[in-house]
Amino acid sequence: MNCDLCDNIALVHETVIKNGVNRTVHLCAAHAAERGYELPLGLPQVQIITKVETTAGRSDAAKPTRVCTGCGLSLSEYRKSGVLGCEHCYDAFGSFLAKVIERAQAGATKHSGRVPDDHRGAAARTARRESLLTALQAAVKSEQYEEAARLRDELHTLGPSSTPESP
Question: pTM above 0.85?
């Protein structure tokens, strides 16, 4: 079977069932690696991406090099090691990482799974805090100062926030 995007032999065959509709995707090694699919070759993904780039005739010298402003890590170095250098790498390589993360998390872009017992209340408090802050801003904007004071007091009962911009 051939790749859906070119005439090469498809190595990845995935059937997605969404709302009762089956959709099958057939991709060659190059297109599968571009979209973040893990290839069934028994090799680490970093080695697969490197092999796909060399077999497709693309070299890192021919492409513009993305470099993290925080640590100086290049995208090609990340692909070789599979490890980011600092928190700024997420901004520098965002478009590339978004595809890989989304694929690895079955389409999810925010955490939706289990959390450790000691963090369950923190997530609920953070969500409640954000809701109260939004309501507080709306109350102040509409000059409902008594409601704003009540919301402020409720925010204070939640305790200190882990984010510096919250009251």
Answer: no
